[in-house]
Amino acid sequence: MQRRLLLGHPQLAITIGRLCQELIEIHQNFDNTVILGLQPRGVFMAKRIQERLKEFVEREVPLGYLDATFYRDDFRRRDSPVKANETKIDFLIEGKNVILIDDVFYTGRSVRAALDAMIAYGRPKKVELLTLIKRKYSQHVPIYPDYVGKEVNTMESQNVVVEWKGQAGIEEDNIWLQNKAQ
């Protein structure tokens, strides 16, 4: 399986720092702002963003995890049952600025489902989308990220694989573009 490195550890750390600086420009003190990581892989990215923001602004922005499995438009069309992940939101999102975070933006369908799932926890004042990687030319719905780490030209036959240090046997953060198994 062919793999090409899109972002290695040093570049990935710089990209996360830049995304945090962009958030600080808009949200400044984060008084009315919360972060929601989209399960399963957006949670790792959301934790990294929260940690870096704490370094920069010296305050902890509330972090929650949102699972949108049962809100997906393809939920009942799959051959095998899908296992849901944990939703953990220990705060109100009613009237808050919500930063929804996912690692890879592909078709937009996961984000659309997450917007539906989020409404069960209140009506936010504003929702912004932050993604580490935006795949070009693959959108199915008119949803666009507000903050993007890197845009990547991809083909349907390729996957973007994000590896975070601390995950099963991963020694450093890397993002790969690889061909799907045939």
UniProtKB/TrEMBL annotation:
Specify whether Signal is a keyword of the entry: no
InterPro entries assigned to the protein according to its UniProt record, in alphabetical order: PRTase-like, PRTase_dom, PyrR_bifunctional
Q: Which stretches make up the Phosphoribosyltransferase domain?
A: 7-165
Q: Which Pfam families match?
A: Pribosyltran
Q: Which UniProt keywords apply?
A: Glycosyltransferase, Transferase
Does the keyword Transferase feature in the UniProt annotation?
Answer: yes
Query: What domain of life?
Result: Bacteria
SUPFAM superfamilies this protein is in?
Answer: PRTase-like (SSF53271)
Q: Which GO terms describe its molecular function?
A: glycosyltransferase activity
PANTHER family attached here? Answer: BIFUNCTIONAL PROTEIN PYRR
Q: What is this protein called?
A: Pyrimidine operon attenuation protein / uracil phosphoribosyltransferase
| Origin species | Roseivirga pacifica
